[in-house]
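User: My collaborator sent over this chain with a note saying "see what the structure looks like." That's all I know about it. Can you take a look?
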Amino acid sequence: MNRSLIAAALLALPACYVYDTDSRPGPINYAPSITWADAGCFWDNGAHDWIWYFDADVTDPDGTLDVWEVYADVFDERTGELVDSFLLSDFGGGFWSTEWVQRQTWLDCAYGGYVVDFVAYDTYDAFDTYAVYPYLGW
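Assistant: Without extra context I'll predict from the sequence alone. Here is the result:
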């Protein structure tokens, strides 16, 4: 077959366009914001033990459903070591909370050297942090 015929046949084919999808703007994601958080412990007569609580209010410009997870990470402020970590439950309207009986944790309500770092993640892994010193109810 003649090379000029092959070249003419190829020129007659429709053009192919390639789009660079990385140059297109994607969705804009805003990070969540922890507006308030609290942690501490109190005595519970029914459980015959101390109860640890972790509460946080989280907002997100993309809506409260964009907030995916909220954690309370308890550190020993003196050593910097992570003592325990808790996943909070979503109670709706941006309020996240959890409670734990002390004997189910590595925490001690009599120890005053903790700091609690709250971390809120959204569906795109954007996050916010908020640190508090827990209230010790003794």
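A starting point for your reply to your collaborator: The mean pLDDT is 89.
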